[in-house]
């Protein structure tokens, strides 16, 4: 009987030891799982930060491009206005020159006609 009791106690001790080991393994597994979840969360945050940095860099690049295009458009509009003004001045000068040429042609015609008439009058007389 004594041996039976010792065997039962030994079995109970083994069961307790086994249960303790199971609990220890479960806690270890839980701790590993928690650690892995924390690591995954940190990696997710890092990935999110990197994505945001990439987005901000692209946004800044686009904003710089837009700013440059606006500046280029402003410069081009100012240049176009200057060229339009110069063109109008050249057209006005051309019209003035055409009028001057027409006036001079009229004077030349009158002088030529006057000299021809004078010449004809001298030969006639």
List keywords for this structure.
125 residues, mainly alpha
Description:
With 125 residues, the protein is mostly helical. The chain is 98% helix and 0% strand. The chain has one helix and no strands. It has one helix at 2-124. The mean pLDDT is 90.
Task: Kindly summarize this structure in a few lines.
The protein is mostly helical and 125 residues long. The chain contains one helix and no strands.
**Which whole number gives the mean pLDDT?**
90
Q: How much helicity do the residues have?
A: over 70%
User: What is the first-to-last residue Cα distance?
Assistant: 181 Å
What is the radius of gyration? Answer: 53 Å
How do the helices and strands follow one another from N- to C-terminus? H
Specify the biggest β-sheet.
none
> What's the number of helices?
1
Question: From the helix content, strand content and strand pairing, which structural class follows?
Answer: mainly alpha
Number of DSSP-assigned strands? 0
What sort of overall outline do the alpha carbons produce when their principal axes are compared?
A: rod-shaped
The fraction of residues in strands falls at under 5%
Stretches where pLDDT is under 50 for at least 5 consecutive residues are none
Topology (elements, then pairings):
Elements (H helix, E strand, L loop, with lengths): L1 H123 L1
